[in-house]
Amino acid sequence: MNIISIIRLLWRIIILSRCYGAAAPIAKPNCTTHCGDVAIPFPFGIGPNKDCYLDEWFQIDCRHDNSTTSINYSRHAPFLKSVNLELLSIFPFEDGTQSVQVKNPITFFRCEGKETRQPQNLTGSPFIYSRTHNIFIAVGCKLFAQMSSDHETIAGCGSICHNNTDGDYDNCYEGIGCCQDTLPRNKLTSAFSIEIPSNPMGDCKYAFLVETDWFANNLTNFRDVKDMDSVPVVLDWILNVHDYGERFREKPDLTRNQSTPFCTSNYDFTWYNRTRMICICPPGMEGNPYLLQPCQDIEECKGSNQCGDDVCENVAGGYSCYSNINGRIRICTHFASSLHHNNTNTTCHFIPTRGQASRTIILGLGSGVGLLFLLIGAWWVHKIVKKRKTIARKKMFFKRNGGLLLEQQLLSGEVNLDKIKLFNSKELEKATNNFSIDRILGQGGQGTVYKGMLADGRIVAVKKSKMVDKSKLSKFINEVVILSQINHRNVVQIMGCCLETEVPLLVYEFIPNGTLSEYIQGQIEEFPLTWDMRLQIATEVAGALSYLHGAVSFPIYHRDIKSANILLDEKYRAKIADFGTSRSISIDQTHLTTCVHGTFGYLDPEYFQSSQFTEKSDVYSFGVVLVELLTGQNPISAVTGSQEEEYRSLATYFITSMQEDRLFDLVDARFLEEGSETEIQVVANLARRCLNLNRRNRPTMREVTSELEAVQMSRKPSISAQQNSEGVDFVEDDSVGNWDVESLSEVSASY
User: Fold this and answer.
1) What is the C-alpha to C-alpha distance for residues 172 and 156, in angstroms, rounded to an integer?
2) Neighbour-count burial of 136, counting CB atoms closer than 10 A to its CB (0-12 exposed, 13-18 middle, 19+ buried)
């Protein structure tokens, strides 16, 4: 009997002895492991024994399912008792996964026989709605649905219908009869509500958060959800180090037992900068690591492996293959290299026979020297190839990010070469500390803005655009072209751009004192804006818009004027920013026909209806900013005191207050002490004219600038007394009309 035959016989004995091994436990001793067909692993557990679960947040209530109609079938369903949600499954703990699948209610609006239910509030619990596994869906014709948390919209989408029917569409991606949106990556979502602010058609509409894979793979038509009361949703859960660190703290394994699970602390800013505990079994092992009991070795020889016809022997964390090659025994050992058990590291060696030992040593030394030279050569080749790939990659990014389009603009003379510098990627990475989250100044629909310092010591703002497709790259190049043409002290100046990175980058002058919106809403309380400062800011913004509309070679429409796009420099002078959606038109054009872009509360209603943007549309948006400066209120705010949550447009409320002679009930009380009633009335009348629903009746930005400058001049002591002795009456204008924020509910806001 040769060696291979002996190994085969011994291996059969080992296999037979292991076939009767116990399965890895998932729960503590004497604790129930299943409720119905759902496995309940620790730290979850079924009560009332408190030792069976980690704490009350993880207690499972196994209830009888009353929805079962069959007399001969009795089903039990598990519920997360702390949040009263039916549990569908608990994901395996592989790769440190900490997620569960629960039932989430569908929120119906005006659906006969359907109750309007909101998702469960998880605030204070270790559970949040998963950002990566869930998707927001809304079904219905001509709707805009949104998920709101703490009076802030975190997701939303709108739909349209062709000829009042959507029967030919079976998905929500195109927004026809159904729409979808993802959850934000940088926000912890533990509580939210679903609203459809307006329902002009009055028909049945519904929205819900649902597990992405379930929605894509288990429905033949999205309308099938209408017959359901709930859908699956994924919750992520966390073991906070502050609460559970002592119970799961990492301990050294003095016995060097490869089957011992280990718990590590993982800093995760997506959980509001908390450090969480994750327990896992070592690679090649399986079991429940939260029991802090030895994990069991995976029997690779019983399943798929790389041994083929060779003898397979299981070892801790892997397996070995024995083969006979020319009278020599080769042993190849495969160890799991990561938590993904199909990734292995393989080492092979031969068991030498007599007379082969010295030859093996000589061959080993020769092979070692040859391998050393081979590694040196491979390293040098790798370095050259990597450098060439980097150059080719930068060229590819340059073309993909609109470099060719920018070159065309340079040749045509539309871009000012004296103002635009092409930065390289290394220069901007060093300036922003590799785009560290500590350097983030703000985030919006177009991208993220970072604070940076160039090699010459200049402080700059670097705008990193979001991943965009080719159809949206024109917006980025458009912003470069627009800003290169502008030379005005109240417009943010562009310094250059970088196109050789994965996403395009813009470099601006740094504006240190934040946005006007932060001061109006009181987020910066240590420096309130006085009446004089607000007049100055309004005059500067009006002058800049007047310059854009008439002082440059081609008129420029900003198309997204709002207080969040007005920055304040070190002397609190206004600077208009964010020209990503702006357009430059020829002089013989009077308007720009385009898809509707803008922000709720600032959109020109006539532009919303006709999709024709003119300079008077910027005037309307400036009027809203002027009302913000007068009142200190948000352009869109929740109405307090109503049973159902409603929203109010500041522009509508302002016009109504003026018509009812209630202006000074709305104006910030501080201004009555700092400025005269006459000045406030003049500015209020100007804002009202800017908000006229008929764009022909609105003033131009040149006229607005002149009137604001006149108000500023009137504050000089020699003129102030004369102006205060005269009264200014409100201008009655029936054409202003009444409109409400509901008319804007079908437009998706962009920031």
Assistant:
1) 13
2) buried
pLDDT tens digits for 505-514?
Answer: 889 899 998 8
Enter the DSSP assignment of 166.
Answer: -
Element (H, E) at 277: strand 274-280
Residue 148 has pLDDT above 70, yes or no: yes
Q: Are residues 75 and 100 in the same domain?
A: no
| pLDDT tens string 670-681 | 887 887 888 899
Same domain, 568 and 716: yes
Q: Tell me if 549 sits within 8 A of 465, measured CB to CB.
A: no
Q: How many domains does the chain have?
A: 6
% of the chain with per-residue pLDDT over 70: 76
Using the Cα atoms of residue 319, residue 324, residue 327 and residue 330 in order, give the sign of their dihedral: negative
Euclidean distance between CA atoms 606 and 583, whole angstroms:
18
Residue that is written with structure tokens 């501080």 in the block? 670
CATH code assigned at 433? 3.30.200.20
In which domain, by residue range, is 176 found?
A: 83-237
Residue 72 dihedral angles phi and psi, to the nearest 5°: -90, 10
> Which of 85, 103, 135, 127 is closest to 236 using CA atoms?
127
The answer on 246 and 209 residing in a single domain is no
Residues facing residue 108 across a β-bridge: 206
Angle, CA 176 vertex, CA 170 and CA 179 arms, to 5°:
85
Q: Which long-range contacts (CB under 8 A, 24 or more apart) does 214-218 make?
A: 215/135, 215/137
Judgement on whether residues 536 and 596 belong to the same structural domain of the protein: yes
Is residue 232 in some structural domain? Answer: yes
Give the active site residues.
560
In a domain, 458, yes or no: yes
CA distances from 228 to 106, 422, 653 (A): 8, 56, 40
Higher pLDDT, 240 or 661: 661
Q: Are residue 719 and residue 577 in the same domain, yes or no?
A: yes
Residues 6 or more apart in contact with residue 667 via CB below 8 angstroms: 630, 631, 680, 684
* Residues 260 and 199 reside in one and the same domain: no
Judge whether 164 lies within some domain. Answer: yes
Same domain, 289 and 417: no
Per residue in 357-397, pLDDT tens?
A: 556 667 778 888 888 888 998 899 988 988 888 888 888 88
- Of the residues 351, 370, 385, which one is the last residue of a structural domain? 351
What's the pTM? 0.46
Q: What is the pLDDT of residues 8-32, one digit of tens each?
A: 444 444 443 443 345 678 898 899 9
Pair (603, 682) in one structural domain: yes
